[in-house]
Request: fold
Amino acid sequence: MPMQMPDFSLIVPEITMAVLGLMVLVLGLIVPRESRHGLGWFTAISILGVIGLVLAGWCKQGNLYGGLYIVDQYAQFFKITFLTAAFMVVLGSMKFVDKHMGGQSEYYSLVLFATLGMMVMASAGDFMTLYLGLELMTIAFIILVCFRRTESKSLESGMKYVLLAGMSSAVLLYGLSLIYGLTGTVVIAQVGKALALKQSLPLLVLGLVMLVAGLGFKISAVPFHMWSPDIYEGAPTPVTAFLAVGSKAASFAVLVRLFMSGFPGIQLNWEMVLALLAAVTIIVGNLVAIPQTNIKRLLAYSSIAQAGYILVGLVAASEAGIKGIMFYGFLYVFATVGAFTVAAYFYNATGSDEIKDYKGLAQRSPLMAAVMLVAMLSMAGIPPLAGFVGKFYLFATIVDNYLWLVFVGLVMSMVSVYYYLRVALVMYRDEPVDKTPITVSGPVTITLVLAMVATLILGIYPGPLAEVVNTAAHSFFIAH
Amino acid sequence: MSGFPFLTAILLAPIVAALFMVFIPREEGKLIKCLAAVGTFISMALSLYVYFAYDQRLGGLQFVEQIPWIKDLGVTWFMAVDGISLPMLLLTNLIGFSAVFASWNVTNRPREFFILLNLLIAGVMGTFMAHDLFIFLLFYEVVVIPIYIMVVIWGSSKRVTKEYAGMKLTIYLLIGSAFLLVGVIALFVKSTAILGHPDMSFTKLAEAGMKLSSFDQIWIFALMLFGFGSLISMWPFHSWSPDGYAGAPTAVSMIHAGVLKKIGGYGLIKIALFFLPLGAKFWAPYMAVLGVAGVTYAAFGALAQKDLKYVVGYSSVSHMGYVMLAIGCLNVIGINGAVANMFAHGVMAALFFSTIGFIYEKTHTRWIPDMGGLARQTPRLAVAFMLAAMASLGLPGLISFIPEFTIFVASFQVYGGLAVIGIAGIIITALYVLRAGANTLFGPPRPEYDHLEDIRGPEMVPLVVLGTVLVVGGLMPSLLFDMVNSGATKLMTHIEGALKIGGAL
Reply:
């Protein structure tokens, strides 16, 4: 086979991200300490630029390096999702970073690298690339989680994250190696072809279980979720937001790719397992969220439940299911980043994460209270917010085969309203103890308003996004 | 039908008013109230126009607006009214406008209150105008959150705390709507398979729904019955209703008992019955039985209450039992009676709650034994109270007599003995309503209430608006019945046609 130059234009966004990450690091050395605040703006605007690059290459599709790296609209859409999340997190965290963390250039650079890792995951066509992206993201996150060096909680959760993430990576890797041993290939599409000829072997089942466990950890599906509340609570809040959104969405991108194009032949084997996993995740996430008194822990459990809903799309194992995952993943970004940004900013102003301290927030800062309410109700799936449409798409895909799961999902999402409304109660009913208004700074306002407006618009008029997602989900099947 | 989009304008008027309020400083209470009144007045005037401009002889959907909305779900922004939805729309506006004035004395955070109130009214109107199931659902659930916030901030804690009342109200309705949603999603998926493309408009779904197997129709109908039934406070899913009304501020009680509940009955008729005729056929007797059970159980419940709001709360559960019984008849007369009774009860309940609201505002109590002789001190309030009370027990000449009579005729034809039990409920109704009236208004006046001022100025608006409707509707029932009949006949023609095809007739 003649050597062919790969088409590098396909991976311009990734190359740009890598360059940017390094550049921010260097800029940190050049720029004087007082004006490092500007690095946040620089990063945010560059991310917007990268989103532009991805959009510009929207119609270009292709495989690089013989299937190692797949650029299709499916991957592109996920990249836009990650970049949007990164953009919002960066803007929302500028104040927080200046006040509590320091080391701006390292922080922003790590955020960029974590995003790069996610982008690689979305495009990964074989096990190696997948693992590379996963580790790039995870290592960046480990550092980010313990970024507040003086805070023992942050260090503790960093330590926990190192150990547990390492363990889950090991399990995942072992699973991948078993499957490699069975099929003799690491390219996901070829694994699918090789397995189509085989009966289901015990070894394959073991490999699958390990894959589910390894990635289940990343999406914090029950019973692999134990780490997430602790780490979400201890990590600096903007990092938590990014961890909850980016790391989850990227892992879903990988999960879909692995299961839909790697193991389509043995679908029945994993469909039921995933359905049970989704049900347990939804139930446990929502029920355990009820007694929480710390806003970050509450959001952590609710985000576990959210992962359960998204899993439903994978259970469907169809184009519509993938579409549901992508749609829900995208709007989940706005709701989650919005809620965590409020939490971060509230901590910035008051130094507390306790729900009881949110008393009278509606009077101190109507914007923050409104964003929190909108974000939470969207997660609960109350119309006219985006979550409602998202759930409609997801659950419509499994009505025929898994009606019981539809019941579980929808009833539990109404249960979730209970704990979301308790937060609303505190924010809206109670009189504030400290009446000083909280003024929201410029960049944070952008994130908050974006989160709220996007959640509302996607809920009332989801048509255009739905069509984009349709093409993206469709491209997933063309490529193979 | 092109031309001025009346329905969207009706929907937007309160929302636009609410948007203006956001930018008005919170101290300008008077201005905010005026804005709320103007917004709801525009809606009311427009819907009155639409009501009388609707061509009853032509029937069917009129004032249609259609804009494609979400292509891959087949959703259209489909606004239209027919003989069943128009009375409900008008009712919403009458009550909404009155509710603004019933809350004229709200001084605690008025801006937030009136913004939420306007959004709430708009949400309820939307459900009655939507002719697309998805859009209907959007409006259906959107009202839950404003209600919760209004109850916990402006509600009152008497027998139960307002937090409890608000949460109970919310959770009941949401769990109901979760089941409803499962039904809707299943219906959507199955109808897409039948039609070959997704379409959520009522017309298309009805076309597809009647082709479903009878088993599918029955279980989907059951889910809808549970969802809509818990909204209309069908026994035994009614217990949120008295507690919720007791905890809620006046305006919310008015809107909730007056119209929001009616979305349940409306949904049962225009969605469940219309889409799933075989399911309706199967469940109709059960609906009738639950209806009668609700009538008698709640009437006895009301008899035992000493708190005015609880009396009216239970009474509204009891009246909704008649609606369920009427829907269970599954014929034109029954549907006529159900819709008309919902309208009549809405006006009456709203007037009742606004009166109780004023009484409570002035006397600071709703406890019947603590009151008496108020007719001397506050005669106008007493007139409002007695009007509502008389309508409640179905006095001929007031709006609710003919609808109840219609229901008895229809149900006696179909169910015989069961209907007799239902009719007997009216005696108990008379008992508790008269007793409440007598103990509150008549008897020796109490000196501690001598200083009370009667309602006046803006406070008179609910009495004037709703009282007029009560009397006019009673004297000229054809105004209401011709309209309802034009819708019910079309609906039943469709259902009977479908049942014939399905072989159930």
Summary: Chain A touches chain B at residues 362, 377, 382-384, 388-389, 392-393, 395-396, 399-400, 403, 406-407, 410-411, 413-414, 417-418, 421, 424-425, 428-429, 460-463, 466-467, 470 (CB under 8 Å).
